[in-house]
Amino acid sequence: MVRGVITDWGGVLTSPLIDAISSWVTAERLDSGHYRQVMRTWVTEAYAGTGTNPIHGLEDGSLDPAEFERLLAAELRTVDGGPVPAEGLLNRMFLAFLPVEPMYDALRAVRAQGVRTALLSNSWGNTYPRELWAELFDAVVISGEVGLRKPDEAIFRHVLDTLGLPAAECVFIDDIDHNVRAAEALGMVGLHHTDVLATVTRLEELLGVPLSGSGA
After folding, report:
1. Fewer CB atoms inside 10 A, N or C side of the chain?
2. Which one, of 84, 63, 80, 82, lies nearest residue 72 by Cα?
3. Per residue of the chain (216 residues), what is the pLDDT tens digit?
4. How far apart are CA 162 and CA 156, in angstroms?
5. 188 DSSP 8-state letter
6. How far apart are CA 70 and CA 74, in angstroms?
7. Cα distance between residue 7 and residue 136, in whole Å
8. How far is residue 150's CA from residue 141's CA, in Å, rounded to a whole number?
9. How far apart are CA 99 and CA 22, in angstroms?
């Protein structure tokens, strides 16, 4: 029996991360190949959990966003070899993050069925639409605010405790497969988000109710 739905924010309730990053890379005329190389190394290290890593630090709140911007800007360059401004870099990176209204509608429909809902997000110094949360979520866990990050077991246990539900009664939605598998290892039902219609359809199957208000 599913009594709780826990969802990621970026890439699930927003347009895909790859789209936002592509818009930013184009707007700032970045050397895209070099950017991908830097981020591939940083992301691999962050998920391997080895040593200190800027992404790991940014997500768990141990690294100030302004320092992350400085570190990343120092690694990047424009297509003609020029520097990339550090100040405001994170806001510029995610400027093209747009809300995916059918997913918001689906969450409202889920909650209307009496299912408890939670947001579990690895923050990159993001500006969240917090004004919407009261109607959407029973619990909100932001990595940098609790000093933990996905895919660490502790942050999943924290959100479960906040919801007051066991893992076996919760669905976890994320666009990063590594995080989904970490949730599954704790006993949650994992839902790797790649498409709104597929996610909503799977939620309907798991909950055993139509989510007609989802707009999907």
Report:
1. N
2. 84
3. 899 999 999 999 999 999 999 999 999 999 999 999 999 999 998 888 656 799 999 999 999 999 999 999 999 999 999 999 999 999 999 999 999 999 999 999 999 999 999 999 999 988 899 999 999 999 999 999 999 999 999 999 999 999 999 999 999 999 999 999 999 999 999 999 999 999 999 999 999 988 865 444
4. 10
5. P
6. 6
7. 11
8. 11
9. 17
